[in-house]
Specification:
Blueprint: H1 2-6, H2 11-33, E1 54-58, H3 63-74, E2 78-83, H4 86-96, E3 99-102, H5 108-118, E4 123-126, H6 141-169, E5 173-178, H7 191-211, E6 216-223, H8 229-235, H9 238-246, H10 256-267, E7 278-281
Parallel strand pairs: 1-2, 1-4, 2-3, 4-5, 5-6, 6-7
Helix pairs in contact: 3-10, 5-6, 6-7
The structure holds NADP nicotinamide-adenine-dinucleotide phosphate (NAP).
Length: 288
Amino acid sequence: MIETLFSLRNRPQLLNLLITDYWLLITDYWPLATNHSPMKVSPSDYHLDFKNKRALVTGAGKGIGREIAVQLHGFNAQVVAVSRTESDLKALKDEIGCETIIAELAGPAEAKRAAEQAGDIDLLVNNAAIAILQPFLKTTVDAWDATMAVNLRAIVIISQVIAARMIARGVPGSIVNVSSMARFQALRDHAAYCASKAGLDQLTAVMAVELSEHGIRVNSVNPTVVLTEMGKRAWSDPAKGGPMLARIPLGRFAECEDIASVVCFLLSDAANMLNGLALPIDGGFHTT
Ligand code: NAP
């Protein structure tokens, strides 16, 4: 029973259960804490339910982005999935019935076209990224430019289009940028990737400052290693992955589900006061 409840596939239900309990606790003790209640809350307000919300997820073809799309669908969002491999998007569409857009986000015109084609969006997850591993002394201009084009420039372009439409429609919105613990840790062979993720977190902060007045929250998440295709390339060698794993108090790398559930929480109204964060999802790595 316990195993079933906590199984990764039950994350949407479990998350709702936890949020309900959390808000029961808060509302029970709220009068003791403050007289300045900003709004009436009830536990049912904090169930994750993205009914009538359209969510755009980039890099939804594989790995973390795919799981984010699946969980958002589980929470009743209408998902628009962007990626560049058609077969991945077709498989996702067959599974969750989402809209799909094929785009190579390294090109600024393609990134803009994809965002415009997505139409009205309430929830945006900028997840697509690349990691080209090269020692600093061998980092090429091509690799640097490609990394910045996908990991940073595309996010600026897509977010500009989506946020401008939210503002024009007069609706609130929530944006989550998928950054990395590589923003905090100096990882060998990751010069361009680390720099792009550090830049992304600061971009997140500025977006949060400027978009808040329009009711749009912006946060980053900073996952530790997840053994997706990208993660395996960097960390499946025990000589590299072992020392990293040894520093994670929970004793394991993250799973895609661990990241997706936090992203869904940040997108939701339950996280209404969270803004401009760079939130580690690392099993306690940053404390060691
Ligand atoms: P992944 O397994 O490589 O999947 C990335 C997805 O993004 C794929 O569907 C890929 O499509 C798509 N994509 C990449 N470049 C694109 C482009 N130029 N245009 C359109 N789509 C593109 O990566 P992941 O591990 O799930 O990573 C997802 C996010 O988590 C990234 O932001 C990454 O930096 C971050 N992250 C990952 C880890 C980790 O250990 N895995 C840790 C921390 C943070 P194709 O397959 O068709 O190329």
